[in-house]
Design a protein that fits this description.
This protein is of the alpha+beta class. The protein has a domain of about 30 residues. About 20% of the residues lie in helices and about 30% in strands. β2 and β3 form a beta hairpin. It starts with a strand and ends with a strand. The relative contact order is 0.37.
Amino acid sequence: MLKLTANLEMCQGYANCVVAADDAFDIDDDGLVVLLKHEVPEEERARLEAAVRTCPVSALSIGDR
């Protein structure tokens, strides 16, 4: 399993991640990212890495547990 993480201090609420993977990311009422999944299977790595890369402030990461 892979682990998704978000740095809420860096997040500026662009929501690019939500557009790229709305099953894994959302934006809360304060405009910050919410992780809908904290652990994801290896089969989703490429898609979620692409979503993580869309963050213009690099507030998201994905990696091995």
